[in-house]
Write a structure and sequence with these properties.
3-stranded antiparallel sheet; Glutamyl-tRNA Synthetase, domain 2; mainly alpha; single chain; 4 domains; 24 helices; 3-stranded parallel sheet; Rossmann fold
Length: 543
């Protein structure tokens, strides 16, 4: 068969030579040992923890070696493309402090642009044509119905599904049959003519999993679809070579495709980059573990963490805890260090499923937020509030002094021990709500309605915002004593039957009336922050 003539019929026109592209996309001028990594998501609009997991790994491997990490968009499947998806990827990863050196909508070294695969179509066609000319690729005219029937037959026979061996019906078409189909205008795809034998197995060194056993590929995979756009398999091989990627980090679900990719690089005459397949993020579900699911687990989406207002550093700390087995020990010794100082290594990544525990992330988040000053916390809340807060919450920032005093109290700033009440921005904004909005509801009082009214009336008669904390508390004790409550806790403990309750029950009435809650930071300070007029109004409303 005249393969050059066939190649011209299938992909007519002149295409640049491989040498042209090698010169156009030269080896990167980087220090010895520098790694080039990439994140290559599809523009589906859904960016998830797995993307962040890979992105942190890519960024750390590249930057710790003085290398480059770039963003490539694999938009070969237009059906899945969502407007604004690329910007969403960049925005989400920027939020978690993952910085790219170049890529789609980022710019950088234009030598390796464009970073959208659809804009690189000519390159893929040039190399597909080369493979056809060499007899390593051929046209396939099978319809969807043909392929469905093929899969059904393989399933019935309990065989591996796919287009291979005796099932590769178009692989051995005669020259006459091929041209007859082309003359009839039948649509076609271009498939790789695999030379692999599934009986042959070999060792492959995975940068994360270590040595793995790989079976040779025998699948005649599609490399160009009927619209001339490449499949992921083909496009990634061409792009990783000409963007000079040195190491590919991806999920372990891609391990099954490794034989295909190894053969594609060999067929194209390109050196194979190193591959590292990281474990899946798992979740404890009852007695079993399962992969995090887009359908079942809202915490899989990165948007979940932004809407809830997780502190970006806290999420990154937790991701690094999952990514490298020695990170937690390092971080205990260096709690305030720049995370970029951690000696990240792909070889330290887990070889089996990493258990994602939202409770542990929440604990880390509390610790990280407790390190902030009230000013830093205010800025974090303000940024979150501008994007996700209610109109009422956005007004919290109009009185800066009040906000700072509220945060200082709630965070324990200046005290002997920092409080760790805040987990997320949304929870923190709800926590400080009573400073800025009167309670719409109140937790249940543990005293009778009559005692509640008597306590509030008694305190209102005595209340003076100019009182210091000691004088203020002595007045609370007076209210307790005149209403049958023990003014001293030791008296109540010695003879509880003699009293309706203790001074703490009286303070709780004042606390619930003022804030709506039974548990808050120091009530005296809360009243000082609210001011006398507002405090009186809240107490009077509950009489």
């Amino acid at each position: 068969m005249d393969y050059k003539l066939l190649a011209e019929r299938l992909l007519p026109g002149e295409y640049p030579s491989p040498a042209f592209y090698e010169e156009k996309y030269p080896a990167r001028n980087l220090p010895k040992g520098a790694e080039v990594t990439r994140l290559a998501p599809s523009p589906t609009g859904f960016i998830h923890l797995g993307n962040l997991f890979s992105a942190i790994t890519d960024e750390r491997i590249a930057h710790r070696s003085s290398g480059i990490v770039y963003l490539r968009i694999e938009d070969t499947d237009l059906k899945r493309k969502v407007d604004g998806a690329v910007e969403a990827v960049i925005s989400a990863l920027k939020y978690f402090d993952v910085k790219f050196d170049e890529g789609a909508e980022i710019g950088g070294d234009e030598t390796y642009a464009p970073w959208y695969q659809r804009q690189r179509a000519e390159i893929y066609r040039a190399f597909a044509k080369k493979l056809i000319e060499e007899g390593r690729a051929y046209p396939c005219f099978c319809t969807e119905e043909d392929l469905t029937a093929l899969r059904e037959e393989q399933t019935k026979n309990k065989e591996i599904t796919g287009y291979y061996g005796k099932y590769a019906k178009c692989r051995n078409l005669t020259e006459e049959e091929i041209y007859k189909n082309l003359d009839a205008g039948k649509p076609f795809v271009i498939r790789l003519r695999s030379l692999g034998n599934p009986e042959n197995k070999f060792k492959f060194h995975d940068e994360i999993k270590g040595d793995v056993t790989v079976t040779e590929n025998d699948q005649d995979v599609v490399i160009l679809k009927s619209d001339g756009i490449p499949t992921y398999h083909f496009a990634h091989a061409v792009d990783d070579h000409f963007m000079r990627t040195t190491i590919v980090i991806r999920g372990e679900d891609w391990l099954a495709s490794l034989p295909i990719h190894i053969e594609l690089f060999a067929a194209l005459g390109f050196p194979l980059p190193r591959y590292g397949h990281h474990c899946s993020l798992m979740k404890q579900d009852g007695e079993t573990r399962r992969k995090l699911s887009k359908r079942k687990d809202p915490e899989l989406s990165l948007e979940f963490y932004r809407k809830e207002g997780y502190f970006p550093r806290a999420v990154k700390v937790y991701m690094l805890t999952l990514l490298n087995s020695n990170f937690e020990e390092w971080y205990l010794k260096n709690p305030d260090a720049d995370l970029n100082e951690f000696p990240f290594k792909a070889a330290k990544m887990s070889k089996s499923g990493a258990l994602f525990d939202l409770d542990k992330l929440n604990d880390i988040s509390k610790n990280e937020l407790a390190k902030l000053s009230e000013g830093e916390m205010a800025e974090f809340l303000r940024e979150w509030g501008e994007e996700f807060g209610t109109e009422a919450q956005k007004k919290y920032f109009l009185d800066g002094e009040k906000l700072m005093r509220a945060l200082a109290l709630c965070m324990g700033v200046g005290g002997k021990k920092r409080r760790k009440d805040f987990t997320t921005a949304s929870q923190a904004m709800e926590f400080i709500k009573f400073f800025f909005e009167r309670p719409a509801e109140h937790e249940a009082y543990r005293v009778t309605d009559g005692d509640r009214r008597a306590v509030l009336q008694g305190f209102l008669r005595r209340y003076d915002a100019k009182d210091d904390a000691q004088t203020w508390f002595s007045k609370v004790k007076e209210v307790a004593a005149e209403n049958g409550f023990a003014a001293e806790m030791k008296d109540y403990k010695e003879n509880p039957e003699a009293y309706k309750g203790s001074v703490s029950d009286v303070a709780e009435v004042l606390r619930i009336a003022t804030t709506g809650r039974a548990n808050t930071p120091d009530l005296y300070t809360i009243m000082q922050i609210l001011g006398e007029e507002e405090t009186r109004a809240r107490l009077q409303a509950e009489v």
